[in-house]
Amino acid sequence: DRIYRFTPSASSPHTGTVFASNVPGTNGLAFDWNGNLWTGDGTTGQGRVWRISPQGVPTEVFRIQPMANEVTTASGVTNVGRDVRSLPPGTITVTPTSRNASNILGSQPLVANGVAFDHLHNLYIADTARGALWRVHLKNDSTPEMSTGCDETFPADTLCLSHVWFANPMLEGVDGIFLDELGNVWADANERNAVVYVFNFTRQAIDVFRNPVDAATQLRNAGPLETPTSPVVVGHRMCTANSDSNRRDNFPSTGGEIGGPGEPKGKISCLDQRVTIPGMRLPVR
């Protein structure tokens, strides 16, 4: 539940110091124009989004709707909603008439993942489980203009579904996101071993790149992407971190360049072509 900060130094590397705590599951990070740091609650699955002051004090500002709400009735119904599962590690039994779960593995509850701002003070939040991007406009003082109260079974600060800016199966497993100067979104769809580009004005999506299928195994786990997590566009160059998770299109994770015994567990991959629109300069002003 902590965020660390340090001053980069190749000659004398610094040890990170705690900047903020009490943000369980913190995942993506983005600074706003007032120096506040924003983050979501990651794999806790509750969908909380915090604003952290320059002094390191967190405040829960709103929540992305979780996949299931905590409801218990007298008749014995516990929880209402749905559960998204990745195969593998989840497995199903395929018959001529059905494809039903055969175990309980692979649940994906994460709804508040990567965060990023555009020049118009809009905050975008990656919803991993739904394959969606939510958007909330912030005022100059960093307070949100938001619609809540659409479902009284959720906490009062939970956003209405009207804040879903874009949803598409191409964004399945969307993790980190980054915007270019025109407000188009670069997104790592890590469940698909793909990088997806969402056009700001038309709200259409394309795969910039997706791992090719291996002819022998029919899998997409051999790289170059291995569960991409955090994209960035610096000038006209796009790169992404990879975490090599052992699930979905990256299963088994022993394929590719990382993840074997004694091997590194992460890498950075970059496009070998110049992107047309440069990345948005940070921090956002």
Describe the overall structure.
- The chain has 285 residues and is an all-beta fold.
- Helix content is 0%, strand content 35%.
- The chain is built from no helices and 22 strands.
- It has strands spanning 3-5, 17-20, 29-31, 37-40, 48-52, 58-63, 68-72, 78-81, 92-94, 99-101, 115-117, 122-127, 132-138, 144-145, 164-167, 174-179, 185-189, 194-198, 205-210, 228-234, 237-242, 267-270.
- The strands form seven sheets. Strands 11, 12, 13, 14 and 15 form a five-stranded antiparallel β-sheet that branches.
- The chain starts with a strand and ends in a 15-residue tail after the last strand.
Note the main attributes of this structure.
mainly beta; five-stranded antiparallel sheet; single chain; 285 residues; four-stranded antiparallel sheet
Give the overall silhouette.
globular
Number of strands: 22
Show unreliable segments: none
Class based on secondary structure composition and strand pairing: mainly beta
DSSP summary: helix tally: 0
Distance between the termini: 28 Å
Radius of gyration, rounded?
19 Å
Largest sheet: 5 strands, antiparallel
Q: Residue share in helices?
A: under 10%
Beta-strand proportion? 35-45%
Query: Average pLDDT across residues?
Result: 93
In sequence order, what are the helices and strands, one letter per element? EEEEEEEEEEEEEEEEEEEEEE
